[in-house]
Each structure stands twice: as structure tokens, then as C-alpha cells.
């Protein structure tokens, strides 16, 4: 029997671990997937504001995992928010790395009500803001703001899954991605 494909996720959040597991199961259907989560610091605020801060948080989580653990792939997802020209929105950055390369992806935007975005600017985390607005408990380890604001037609996990699916492209076609433009 072959060794399992070892995936390390820079979070113990089951939503993030499940998203990573489902993607690697999709791309490596004949392999046993060993997908584990570890506490990995983002070194950004608990609620990142802006695309750069959010992306850097995911990159930092992957880098920490690479420095402290051995795996075939390292994965991190970081949710953030920003005020865009068309209104406030939340989104996530994903980072996937192995020992040769790294890919960065981003989810689509979920428009946020201005009052909820303003609470984030006051230092609150989106999950806590959503729990208060919708009278839920620990929504960030369930469907997230995405689930609540889309009446559960999309979820935090489905958004991570889509972003991870796209970020896998360089690993599936490394020769194409290694060529200079």
C-alpha cells in the first residue's frame, strides 16, 4: 500500500480542514488523504482588513507549517474584509505549497452590510459580529457569514473549496507555470 498524501492545514477550524480534504480527495482520488489541522499563527489581526493583510495572514500560516512540520502539501485560508469602491465585502485568500512551489488564490466577494463592516473596523471578528446579528453560536466553524447572508445556498466551506480548486492549477500543470512569459 502506498503512503498517504499528507496535507497540513494551518488551522484547527474543521471548515478549513474539510475544504482542504475535499480538494485533495478530488485531485488525488486514488490516494489515501491524511489531512490534519494545526495551530499556525497568521501574524495579522484576528480580523484582517484589506487584501494584503488577508493574503499575508494565509502566507504566514503556510510558512509556519513548512518550518515546523513535514507534509506533502501545506494549506492555509484566511478570511478578510475590505471597503471596495462598490461597497464593503468579505473574501478569503488561500495558499497551497509543497516543497517546490506555492500558489495563491482568492475567493469571490460576499457583499457585507455597512453596519457589519463598521463593527469589523471597531476590532470585532466577522464570526462574532454574525453570531450577534443572527443569534447564532460559533458560526465561523459552520457555514460562516456566507451561509447566513446567502440563506445557506453557499457556505464558508464551499467558498474555500472553490478558491482551493483554482489554486491547485500550478500543481496540476507545473511545466506551464514554470515557463517565463
Automatic annotation (TrEMBL):
Keywords: Hydrolase, Magnesium, Manganese, Metal-binding, Nucleotide metabolism, Nucleotide-binding. Mg(2+) binds at residue 70. One of its GO terms (molecular function) is metal ion binding. The keyword Cell division does not apply. Residues 10-172 form the Non-canonical purine NTP phosphatase/PRRC1 domain. One of its GO terms (biological process) is nucleotide metabolic process. Its cofactor is Mg(2+); Mn(2+). InterPro entries: ITPase-like_fam, Non_canon_purine_NTPase, NTPase/PRRC1, YjjX_NTPase. It catalyses: XTP + H2O = XDP + phosphate + H(+); ITP + H2O = IDP + phosphate + H(+). Its EC number is 3.6.1.73. Binds 1 divalent metal cation per subunit; can use either Mg(2+) or Mn(2+). The keyword Nucleotide-binding applies. PANTHER family: NON-CANONICAL PURINE NTP PHOSPHATASE_PRRC1 DOMAIN-CONTAINING PROTEIN, PTHR34699. Phosphatase that hydrolyzes non-canonical purine nucleotides such as XTP and ITP to their respective diphosphate derivatives. Probably excludes non-canonical purines from DNA/RNA precursor pool, thus preventing their incorporation into DNA/RNA and avoiding chromosomal lesions. Belongs to the YjjX NTPase family. NCBIfam families: inosine/xanthosine triphosphatase, PRK05074.1. Homodimer. This is Inosine/xanthosine triphosphatase. It comes from Pseudoalteromonas arctica.
Amino acid at each position: 500500500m502506498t503512503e498517504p498524501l499528507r496535507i497540513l492545514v494551518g488551522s484547527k477550524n474543521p471548515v478549513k480542514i474539510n475544504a482542504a480534504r475535499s480538494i485533495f480527495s478530488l485531485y488525488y482520488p486514488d490516494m489515501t488523504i491524511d489531512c490534519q489541522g494545526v495551530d499556525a499563527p497568521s501574524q495579522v489581526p484576528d480580523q484582517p482588513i484589506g487584501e494584503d493583510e488577508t493574503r499575508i495572514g494565509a502566507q504566514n500560516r503556510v510558512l509556519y507549517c513548512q518550518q515546523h512540520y513535514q507534509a506533502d502539501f501545506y494549506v492555509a485560508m484566511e478570511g478578510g474584509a475590505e471597503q471596495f469602491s462598490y461597497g464593503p465585502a468579505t473574501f478569503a485568500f488561500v495558499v497551497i505549497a509543497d516543497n517546490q512551489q506555492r500558489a495563491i488564490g482568492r475567493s469571490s466577494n460576499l457583499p457585507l452590510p455597512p453596519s457589519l463592516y463598521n463593527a469589523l473596523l471597531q476590532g470585532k471578528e466577522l464570526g462574532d459580529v454574525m453570531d450577534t446579528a443572527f443569534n447564532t453560536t460559533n458560526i465561523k466553524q459552520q457555514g460562516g457569514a456566507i451561509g447566513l447572508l446567502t440563506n445557506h445556498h453557499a457556505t464558508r466551506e464551499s467558498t474555500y473549496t472553490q478558491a482551493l480548486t483554482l489554486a491547485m492549477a500550478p500543481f496540476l500543470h507545473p511545466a506551464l507555470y514554470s515557463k517565463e512569459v
